[in-house]
Amino acid sequence: MTVNAFDADRGPELPRRRRRSGGEGRRRDPNVMVPDAQFASYYGRHIVKPAPWGNEIPAYFFLGGLAAGSGLIGAWAHACGYDVLRRNARLGAMAAVGLSGGALVADLGRPERFLNMMRTVKLTSPMSVGTWIFSAFSASAGLAFAVEAADLLGVGRGDSLPQKAIGAGVKVAAPVSSVGSAAFAAPLAAYTAVLLSDTATPLWQESYRELPFVFTGSALAASCGLAMITTPPAQTSEVRRLALMGAATDVTAYHLMARRLGEIAEPLAHGRPGRLARAAEVLTIGGALGATVLGRNRIGAALSGLALMAGSAYTRSAVVEAGIESAKDPKYTVLHQKARLAARRAAGMRSDSITTA
Known about the structure:
single chain, mainly alpha, Formate dehydrogenase/DMSO reductase fold, 12 helices, globular, disordered N terminus, cell membrane, transmembrane helix, Electron_transfer_protein, NrfD-like, transmembrane
């Protein structure tokens, strides 16, 4: 075969590309060469500022829930006549709410900052409302503690006029403290979830539907665990049933939350928050089953109670740390904003269609 100069300069002839028949080239996916989206922010800064919280806030959440559940159990035991359970639950509520306040003050840095929050009442602020709920429950728990202390010390049992006056006061204060503890127990256990949901942190804000049920169920399970540790099994049969209900509420609401959040819930499945969440689920389910099967044995009840309390503490820590991780990664902020924008657009289209109809 003869090769001309042009062909020699051009080099060996390359095989011609065959034309695709039937418009196959036109039907090719136009995004086949588009790389995966990389979520980033300007200068590597966080889009949403992560909460600067340490271990004090998860402890504050856990102890507040423990106090709320114990106050509710104490009020119920007072109505049913379980004296030992009533006393232990009331003392536990007072100890837990005191430690919870200490953890909050430790995070604030100075005690007067907590007092500054009580100068106003702002119904649109979960922090303001929560401060007053916490204070009202603390007052009820303190009154119940005073009643139990007077009963243990025998104050108000004498025949003198001062002793009779004290005894009359104790009789009035006992039901008042029970009503107050029962009334503020559920708001105290749930308001911390509302507080988290009111922030700009993607995971917390998007979990506003299920997180209150996670926290209240976890609080009930933990307080039942404390009652099982401190009280003989003869007076905790109903408490063990409550523990099973609280654990079921906690685990069910948590899984519904994780399923609905989708990709935004990824921090709850990876890293340290993921390990804490898995440990919390195992401990909560194990504690509830142990309370049902081994609850009549004092040692078995105590071990089950410890598992329930540890599961509740791990649940709070997992949610807090996962939320902080979701704020650090711009991916979850962008996904969260896109999801909310799509929901608003869908709601607008529905409203327009209804108006047109």
